[in-house]
């Protein structure tokens, strides 16, 4: 088996009659939008007609764009996919002013209560708040026309350069993704060489990507201020339906626990015979040899076994994903690095991409992406404009699945392997707490400095090193930090979104709290489903209230962080016991 996904449920090719029909519908939608904006009024019929057109624009634009996006993720050299993406982007740009006018209209008038408008109550409220930060139609049109050749172009350049980067490693030519995957190798020698070769890959593409990140961040900053936001972070929070108070409570709680994480990493580094903290190439290293290795078939079996113990709906969704080829597993030249999931509600499916490398972490990654698919399943029957969950809530279901998998592995393991499993889980948690804090701090510093002048690759490296030192402290060896983390993560290059970093910490800590409630009472899973269902039609804080959680107080975050602290103690006790045998 080649273990590659099938996109046939979307379209079989660009010549597929279904693709051509949908493209024609989308192209003709321009005239309908043009006509509507000249006739729209405050009548119920007009309001519902406007919502219907917005639904159609979102639905068809998304399905057409996503087909090419998924193809390009697998093959960055696919010229036809690139051309089709550019075509769809141009079509979207042409009608952006119409969309802005309709949204502005719906955001400024009194909306009567009908079945449709009640379903869109949160969406319409969001439009009302968004209206405070809108530009005039001509300005919106200019921004949309520039988008394909500015923000999107720099994003495309990132994908192209990182997807095609390669270097000699271990005596053979490897892609950047293949080299990065070696960070989980059982051999310290291999991990160290892979780290050094990874750095060489980045050197070759660092300067052009410095231009990319400078221009993306400068434009995000300019647009945010043009719209009246204080800064891109303020824009992200308001668009996400999350309060600054919640972010402050989480960040301040994390900062209180950073010394505990740093001490843990320093102690673990000593156990691995490092006297000055952990070198980056050993950040995923386990104490003791990890014997876990899973074929793709074994990975799927483990996930199904774990999910079956939690809920039939979770098990059934994973079973569908495996049987219907929703997942693209193997690494190959031209394939995008990392992993992601795209929810395709219009066909009631999802597509998941990984770069599978047989490790326990890879199994957890597949389960993580299936969490996104499950989240999509919980909202797939929402109306089209109610299917977008905010970034802070985007990682909740995926992290919940991680908890399921680690718990399942731990429960079945002997003492030695329990030590290994805790080690792997804690390594991941150090990433979503310490590394994410560094990435958040780095992005803040980029926005602060990019106004003053251009940041060359060396400048960006220095800002990243400073952020890593603040986050990891004595836990990491300063001689072996990773200055190119600003290239490693695609999140910095997403055109429309800034600060796609702290949502991972949010998801990790929020999901731990939810999983703790589930462990106390398995009936809680029904509330969990309700929470996921509410995530696209409620604010972040109101979504959490479904589970009885107040996110604006430090108490909840501290409780989750303390549970990690306890796991650190348990792990070190296991290590000490093992060493004394």
Describe this structure in words.
The protein is mainly alpha-helical. It has 23 helices and 5 strands. β1 (166-169) and β2 form a beta hairpin. The chain is globular and about 80 Å long. The mean pLDDT is 94.
Secondary structure elements and their pairing?
Layout: H1 17-37, H2 44-74, H3 79-108, H4 115-119, H5 121-130, H6 137-146, H7 151-164, E1 166-169, E2 172-175, H8 176-181, H9 188-227, H10 232-240, H11 244-271, H12 296-308, H13 312-323, E3 327-328, E4 340-344, E5 349-353, H14 360-379, H15 391-394, H16 396-412, H17 415-450, H18 457-472, H19 485-488, H20 502-520, H21 524-534, H22 540-545, H23 554-580
Helix pairs in contact: 1-2, 1-3, 2-3, 3-5, 3-6, 7-9, 11-17, 11-23, 12-13, 12-14, 12-16, 13-14, 14-16, 16-17, 16-20, 17-18, 17-20, 17-23, 20-23
């Amino acid at each position: 088996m080649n273990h590659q996904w099938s996109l046939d449920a979307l379209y079989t090719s660009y010549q597929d009659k279904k693709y051509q029909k949908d493209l024609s519908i989308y192209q003709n939608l321009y005239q309908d939008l043009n006509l509507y904006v000249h006739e729209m009024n405050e009548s119920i019929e007009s309001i519902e007609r406007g919502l219907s057109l917005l639904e159609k624009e979102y639905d068809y634009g998304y399905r057409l764009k996503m087909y090419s996006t998924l193809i390009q993720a697998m093959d960055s050299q696919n010229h036809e996919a690139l051309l089709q993406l550019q075509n769809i982007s141009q079509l979207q740009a042409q009608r952006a002013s119409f969309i802005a006018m309709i949204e502005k209209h719906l955001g400024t008038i009194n909306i009567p209560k009908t079945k449709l408008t009640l379903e869109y109550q949160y969406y319409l409220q969001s439009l009302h708040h968004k209206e405070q930060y809108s530009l005039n139609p001509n300005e919106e049109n200019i921004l949309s026309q520039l988008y394909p050749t500015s923000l999107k172009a720099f994003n495309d350049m990132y994908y192209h350069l990182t997807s095609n980067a390669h270097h000699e490693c271990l005596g053979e030519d490897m892609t950047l993704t293949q080299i990065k995957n070696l960070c989980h190798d059982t051999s310290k020698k291999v991990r160290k060489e892979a780290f050094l070769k990874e750095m060489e890959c980045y050197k070759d593409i660092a300067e052009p990507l410095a231009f990319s990140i400078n221009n993306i961040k400068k434009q995000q900053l300019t647009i945010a201020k043009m719209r009246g936001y204080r800064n891109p972070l303020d824009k992200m929070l308001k668009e996400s339906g999350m309060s600054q108070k919640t972010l402050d409570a989480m960040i301040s709680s994390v900062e209180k626990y950073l010394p505990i994480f740093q001490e843990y990493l320093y102690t673990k580094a000593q156990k691995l015979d490092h006297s000055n903290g952990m070198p980056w190439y050993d950040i995923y290293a386990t104490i003791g040899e990890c014997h876990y290795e899973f074929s793709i078939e074994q990975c799927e079996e483990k996930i199904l076994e774990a999910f079956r113990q939690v809920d039939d709906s979770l098990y059934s969704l994973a079973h569908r994903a495996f049987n219907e080829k929703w997942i693209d597993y193997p690494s190959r030249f031209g394939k995008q690095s990392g992993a992601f999931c795209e929810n395709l509600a219009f066909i009631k499916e999802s597509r998941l991409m990984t770069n599978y490398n047989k490790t326990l972490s890879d199994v957890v990654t597949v389960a993580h992406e299936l969490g996104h698919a499950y989240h999509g399943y919980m909202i797939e029957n929402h109306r089209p404009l109610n299917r977008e969950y905010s970034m802070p809530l985007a990682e909740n279901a995926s992290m919940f699945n991680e908890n399921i998998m680690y718990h399942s592995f731990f429960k079945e393991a002997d003492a030695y392997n329990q030590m290994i499993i805790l080690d792997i889980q804690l390594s991941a948690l150090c990433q979503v707490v310490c590394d994410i804090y560094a990435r958040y701090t780095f992005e803040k510093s980029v926005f602060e400095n990019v106004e003053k002048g251009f940041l060359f690759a060396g400048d960006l490296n220095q800002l990243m090193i400073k952020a890593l030192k603040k986050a990891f402290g004595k836990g990491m060896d300063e001689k072996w930090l990773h200055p190119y983390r600003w290239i490693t993560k695609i999140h910095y290059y997403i055109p429309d979104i800034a600060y796609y970093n702290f949502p991972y910490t949010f998801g990790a800590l929020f999901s731990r709290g939810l999983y703790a409630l589930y462990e106390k009472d398995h009936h809680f899973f029904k509330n969990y489903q309700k929470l996921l269902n509410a995530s696209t039609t409620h604010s972040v804080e109101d979504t959490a209230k479904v589970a009885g959680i107040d996110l604006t107080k430090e108490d909840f975050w501290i409780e989750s962080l303390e549970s990690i602290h306890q796991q650190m103690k348990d792990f070190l006790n296991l290590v000490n016991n093992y060493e004394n045998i």
